[in-house]
Structure prediction request, 596 residues.
Amino acid sequence: MGLNATYLGMPLDVNELDVENIEYFRHCAAHAFHLQQCAACGLVRYPPTTACPWCAELSSRWVPVEGRGSVHSYTEVHHAIQPAFRGHTPYLILLVDLNMQKGKPTAEEALRVVGNLVTQDGVLALPDQVRRVGIGTRVRMVFTDVAPGLSLPQWTIDEAANAGVTAWRYPESGVGNQ
Amino acid sequence: MPLPSDIDTTSPKYLRDKYATVGVGETAYTRGSGRTTRALATQAVRNAISDAGLKPADIDGMLSYQSGDSTFSPFVAGDLGIRLNFYMDVFGGGSSTEALIGMAMGLIEAGMCRTVAIFRAMNGFSQVRIGGTGVRAAQPVSGDMLHSRAYGWQSAGQMFSPTFMRHMHDYGTRPEQVAAVRTAHSEHASNNPKAYYKNRVTVADVLASRIICKPLHLLDCCVETDNGNAIIVTSAERARNCRHPLVLIRGVVGRCNKPRLDMHYQHGPISTVAGRYAREILWANSGVGPQDIDVTGSYDAFTFTTMLQLEDYGFCKKGEGGDYVSDGTIRLGGRRPNNTSGGHLCEGYTHGINMVIENVRQLRHDADDSCPTGPDGKRRHTYDYREGGCRQVRNVEVTANLGWAMPGTGSAMVMRRG
Prediction:
């Protein structure tokens, strides 16, 4: 059976034919991040796919993945396009390099997992937190519960892991680089 | 029977200069065309046929691209009384123009048709807004979009910004450097009577405009407009009987990609774009290199896209794109002007086809600016690039168009004066 719910007024629809996403979100609903691991080459992949992007193998198994990593890049949205996000600007969209499998199978690859910056409780972060995050910031995964059976993986600042880390942020003045 | 040993049938070099862009046409760039996309397409194709000095009956192939927001070839052909031997309407936006020109060459080469009209018609402001607002923003989120739109990651600017941001991080590219793209294109548009935005803006204006999504200010983003545009492609042999000086196609690369196109950010470096791969085909097929190009048409959905592509196609060293676009090179009067019509930032938004049309006119030495016309009906270009003046580049011989769909996908084409 598919999953249907409304998040911030936006309809989400995980179709029952979309078996990879059904399985992905089933684990998310239990607040346990899982990804597919290829049965042939052993590499883990994101987002869910039908076949292995490295060896085209169809078989895979879902394995638990530690939701920790660092921000590879981001954008900070001030003018929301979707009505769902208009009341939440500025919000951050983060591309996070998971610690696991970073730099594999080639140096330029990583499991880059998308998410918003949220509070520890999974609520979209307010400006004081948004201003603290940039490229290099250490983050950990939390979940936003949308409805029974449907949760979205998200990112929150990993306070303990950020000691000594200086994040790169877009220059606030608009001129010059920080 | 075996082929003669001196013919290498796998080499594209035998298509160099065999095909030509003989006709170009468009409708006015507006916000509120008051017409259907069918009407826009029909008028643009009709204008392009007329520009070529051809009749509708000379067209027997038609190609178009769209995103569920436009009319289809059969209606345009029907409107103009054209019986087609081939047509295809493909799904796609930016980077489609060059790719379809390459397909037109292949169709004619294969003997499937003789002369092809390519069009893109869109009410990109008044009906289906390209920025993703309106109808598109309210659609249910499913499939692959569960990993993007569910996070408020939907519009082109939002989707591309991690690339732009990472380039700033990796190479120290500064906001005021890319803002110079808008400044240059606005100067060009001020000499283009067709342009939607004809006012010149400064780097300070760009930086003072509000942030849409970092690192994009409002003026780093292109305009949304309603318009139809068309180009006619035929063999060089037939082109010699057409109305304008020959504009020959040297080489094309179409919809060339980075790895992992399902989500290209999985593979890096993410500050590198598809041009890094496309250039290996473009320059080899064309038999020229960046140093031979007089005018570029690097897609400017955003200031950053122009910069990234010029860099990855090799017009400057990797990481030096910020300097290249801000040192005067890309301005009219500079060493290699870019988007002399004003491009998407200022002339109007067409998913790339107007930038190809502009280069065709540049190669004819007949940019449609405000310069006076002589008794032969041709413009007498002044090469005075002050506001409201000339936008023809002196002695243009070779141009490059660099089309962009997104960081992971690009198309490109080199044309030359025959």
In short: The first helix of chain A runs from residue 19 to 29.
